[in-house]
Design brief:
Layout lengths: L1 E3 L1 H9 L4 H8 L3 H8 L6 H11 L8 E3 L11
Antiparallel strand pairs: 1-2
């Protein structure tokens, strides 16, 4: 199963924020932002910081994709 952070990027657009704004607001390390940008694995602590900073739920920033749906398929 793959994880997609597409919802996070849409939320940032809706809030008129950039990735750098999120990094500063949430206190994330640059390495964590890089992992998120590449769809990589991050800790639950990282996800919690994002949710607290954006005042949202985990389902607002990520989704788990089934094996038959790749991350590239969600870029439509």
């Amino acid at each position: 199963m793959a994880v997609s952070y597409k919802k996070l990027w849409h939320l940032l657009i809706d809030k008129d924020m950039k990735k750098q704004d999120l990094q500063k607001l949430s206190g994330l390390a640059p390495a964590s932002m890089a992992k998120l940008s590449k769809g990589g694995t991050v800790t639950t602590e990282t996800l919690e910081k994002i949710c607290r900073a954006l005042e949202c739920d985990i389902s607002d920033i990520m989704e788990i994709l089934s094996d038959d749906c790749s991350v590239d398929d969600t870029k439509q």
